[in-house]
Amino acid sequence: MGILEVQGVNKAFGGLKALSDVNLNVEENTIHAIIGPNGAGKSTLLNCFIGKLIPDTGSVVFNGTSLLGIKPHEINQLGVSRVFQTPEIFSDLSVFENVMIPCFAKRDGAFKLNALSRVLGQRDVREKAEQMLVDVNMADKRDMIASSLSRGDKRRLEMAMCLAQDPKLLLLDEPTAGMARADTNNTIDLLHEIKSKRDITMAIIEHDMHVVFSLAQKISVLAQGTVIVEDMPENIKGHPKVQEAYLGTPAEG
Amino acid sequence: MLRLTKKDISLLVVVIVLTMLAPFLLNPFPSDSGLAQFNAGYPDLMQKFVIFGIFAIGFNILFGLTGYLSFGHAAFLGVGSYAAVWMYKLVSYNVLPAVVLAVIVAGLFSVLIGYVSLRRSGIYFSILTLAFAQMSFALAYSVLSNPSFNLTNGETGLQVYANDPQIFHGDHLPNFPHLFGLSMGSTYKMAAGAWEFQFNVAYYFCAIFMILAFYLSMRLVRSPFGLILRAVKTNQTRLNYTGLNTRPYTLAAFVISGMYAGLAGGLLAATDPLAGAERMQWTASGEVVLMTILGGVGTLIGPILGAGFIKYLENIFSKINDNVLHQWFSFMPDGIEDLMVMIIHPFVGKGWHLTLGLMFMLVVTFLPGGLVEGGQRIKTWWANRKSSDKAGKPASTPAE
Ligand SMILES: Nc1ncnc2c1ncn2[C@@H]1O[C@H](COP(=O)(O)OP(=O)(O)O)[C@@H](O)[C@H]1O
Ligand SMILES: [Mg+2]
Fold first, then answer.
1. What is the DSSP letter of B173?
2. How much is the average pLDDT of B248-256?
3. Do A158 and A121 share a structural domain?
4. Residue A85 within any structural domain of the chain
5. Is A39's C-beta closer than 6 angstroms to any atom of ligand 1?
6. How would you classify the pairing of strands A16-26 and A31-35?
7. With pLDDT > 70 as the criterion, what percentage of chain A qualifies?
8. Are residues A187 and A245 in the same domain?
9. Do A12 and A125 sit in the same domain of this protein?
10. How many domains does chain A have?
11. Does A81 contact B at CB distance below 8 Å?
């Protein structure tokens, strides 16, 4: 039984069939990569997991609960967090405030009228937020305004925000896109470290095969809206269907 | 103490000192001097400063923190005034129950309007609030005022009549809003040489509420709730995908700011037991937007400064007429005197809104952070000047 079970998901935008009959099974406590060429429907698929899109048909079940028809914040409270392809952070707030907000969401739930206590008085939240910044190596940028961060740092900040919630399932949409080699390697190390420290399942969309093969225990290949192969990394590399999807021609060895 | 940081406490102390000493501070010119017209230490003007200060502080909780721009907040102010006057009519002229009822009724009313308007954001939210406020105005002005059901007394405005029940009114009590017998209208006048300082009960009553309102808004801004409201302004999508339900947060901010407006409306009725529909008109809603932006959106002290600034200038500019202008320019040759009066005439008296509009344009263009940003710029300019003075000195000493 997987922690995330996706069955027969279809999604069309007007005439464009972005997802057709997608099946996916993410095992608990693994890193599962979703790869595929541009426009294959990878981000659309993640959107169906977080309540941003509702599939036309099919089912998405997380930890025994159907995710269809419930609100994004409810899905998040169940333990699903997402790092977006373009970083979604609170640009006008400081780095530290950015990380404190998910800590409050985790501690106080979807709404709490906590209007008379002081942010600075919440020791548990502050300590947790400090720790997250240390974990992603950004403690020195604590008081910077988030909008002034580099693109790589914005991603790391968003990752810290997601991790601050101790999610059961972390969805990462191209977390290393646009990063330099060194930053990419840091990200790989960071994800390994996170994985070793806690019980967490990750589904990661990635273009960089180096990243995919360093992290994933299982890989699903998506092309033109369908999963064409789901297998262990070692079986994916030479798979003729995969070569075809990426290169447009069947592989000849 | 007070659960505030040192910096916030000093700001609070400054506000307390300034409001308590306002009758002195706002009356710098001797009564018989020509400059006396620029004094602002009169009870009715000082009352306006603090009451509209409360209105703007509350408005800033919604607009400054969450970015939701309401164009209908005057509706809550008006509702507060009506509620207070009804309390006078039915129960007594005591201001405390009247103000409490004003806040409660405005709160309930803003739950209703906020619930519907907050289903949209951006310009659609603003238009919805404007529409609701105009509906409230129409209701107050005519619909809810007819012989069979007269809630607002229409054009005349709601006021207390001799045949009203006023069940707790007694002969020993003033026939005017009062605090357990102490009339809101009573003023102690202190003559000191050429000056006359006025200490008015209603002013101090309202000032205490403003200090409380300011303190509460400080606490709110520094709270987890305030942090999340600021997050609403910068990225609502992220907030939703972070497990927070933005709707109750924005609704709570809306209702709190509606209650502030209701408090301001109740206090207006405490200074003068009258409530009219014009208080709900869209121009009144627009005014609080201007106050907040002129003072500094999202800052603690900005809304109070903006409210004081606008109410003061309104008072000065609308008092100036052609006679005053002729007096000012009488030192000039006749032709030029007339020309100057002609040029300035459209901007004063009834034309005060023209001046306000111009000022608003200038501030938004050159000082988008309002008066607070202006103050900060002066401060850094001053600091730079000082430090460059210091830097200059050692270089010049060897030459001496
Ligand atoms: N909200 C949308 N409206 C219309 N078309 C969309 C929308 N989101 C994605 N698409 C289309 O669906 C297809 C899959 O997109 P996407 O999931 O972003 O691909 P990728 O695998 O590169 O992440 C693309 O052709 C894209 O243009
Ligand atoms: Mg994508």
1. S
2. 98
3. yes
4. no
5. yes
6. unpaired
7. 97
8. yes
9. no
10. 2
11. yes
Q: What is the mean pLDDT of chain A?
A: 92
The pLDDT, as a whole number, for residue B398 is: 38
**What are the phi and psi torsion angles at B320 (to 5°)?**
-75, 125
Mean pLDDT over residues B378-392, rounded?
Answer: 81
More confident of the two residues B267 and B341: B267
Please tell me whether residues A185 and A230 are part of one structural domain.
yes
Q: Is the CB of A44 under 6 A from ligand 1?
A: yes
Q: What is the predicted pLDDT for the residue at A209?
A: 86
- Render pLDDT for B5-24 as a digit per residue (tens, 0 to 9): 899 999 999 999 999 999 99
Q: What is the pLDDT of residue B397?
A: 37
**pLDDT over 80 (residue A253):** no
ipTM: 0.93
Q: What are phi and psi of B345, to 5 degrees?
A: -45, -45
Residue A84 lies in a domain: no
Mutate to test the pocket of ligand 1, among A17, A42, A44 (most ligand atoms within 8 A of CB): A44
Q: Which among B214, B75, B93 has a CA at the least distance from the CA of B138?
A: B75
A199 and A74 belong to one structural domain: yes
Give the start-to-end residue ranges of the domains of chain B: 39-280
Mean of pLDDT values over A204-227: 92
Tell me, what's the pLDDT at B154? Answer: 87
- Across the range B371-395, mean pLDDT stands at 80
Give the pLDDT band of residue B390 (cuts 50, 70, 90).
low
Is the pLDDT assigned to residue A125 strictly greater than 50?
A: yes
By the 8 A CB rule, do A87 and A147 touch? no
Q: Which of A77, A99, A104 to mutate to test the interface with B (most CBs of B within 10 A)?
A: A104
Range of the domain at A48: 1-79+167-253
Asked whether residue A47 is assigned to any structural domain, the reply reads yes
Measure Cα distances from B96 to A6, A48, B127, B162 in Å. Answer: 61, 54, 34, 21
CA-based nearest distance B249→chain A, Å = 7
* Long-range pairs, A58-61, Cβ under 8 A, ≥24: A58/A6, A58/A7, A58/A8, A58/A9, A58/A10, A58/A21, A58/A22, A59/A5, A59/A6, A59/A7, A59/A8, A59/A9, A60/A4, A60/A5, A60/A6, A60/A9, A61/A4, A61/A5, A61/A6, A61/A7
The answer on A175 and A111 residing in a single domain is no
Closest CA to B125 of B243, B238, B251: B251
CATH number of the domain at A67, please. Answer: 3.40.50.300
With respect to residue A207, please indicate whether it lies within any of the assigned structural domains.
yes
* Domain C-terminal end among A132, A165, A198: A165
Could you say which of A165, A189, A205 is where a domain stops?
A: A165
Are residues A50 and A131 located together in one domain of the fold? no
Who's near B266: CB < 8 A, 6+ residues apart?
B80, B81, B83, B84, B95, B98, B99, B100, B101, B102, B103
What is the number of CB-based contacts under 8 A between chain A and chain B? 109
The average confidence (pLDDT) of chain B is: 92
* Beta-carbon-side half-sphere exposure of residue B33 (alpha carbons within 13 Å): 12
pLDDT > 90 fraction of chain A, expressed in percent and rounded: 74
A215 and A159, same domain (yes or no): no
Single-letter amino acid code for the residue at A3:
I
